[in-house]
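Journal club prep — side note

Before the paper discussion, L.F. wants everyone to see what a predicted structure for a comparable chain looks like in token form. Sequence:
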Amino acid sequence: MVSVKSNLLSLVVFVTGVVVCGALIGVSTAPGPWFDTLVKPPFNPPAWVFGPVWTTLYILIGIAGWRIWHLDRSSTAMKLWFAQMFLNFAWSPLFFGAHRLDLALGVILLMLAAIFGFILTSWNRDRISAVLFLPYAAWVSFATVLNASLLYLNP
């Protein structure tokens, strides 16, 4: 029973940690007047979409990280999980805080590479973790195009 409680506690820590860190970064670097003045592409989603999408993705990311953590804490997949988290949390301060669309684009490209690397390295070991990252890969791919478009439209 201790093992089940320990596993449940570590799942809660993973998911809560990812969601709370993401929310704190989101709140501290919320889009403001600067972002409102940017020329946006026609496919730019309304602002209300981002909160629910990121909350859902952060839950999936936390679960995937927890699963890989329990399989092998020193695996390449786990290292890529931490790398993509670092890059994920670095993107908003660069984009919304520093207004550096160019540097943010570089970070999101690296993040996308780490996400796809995680999917590939975890696919044979824990397909569920890999599949949990597929919506994240799709959203970050879209966000990369959006970031690049904003950079292009606002030189």
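L.F.'s comment for the group: The CA atoms of residues 39 and 153 lie 6 Å apart. Keep this in mind when we get to the figures.
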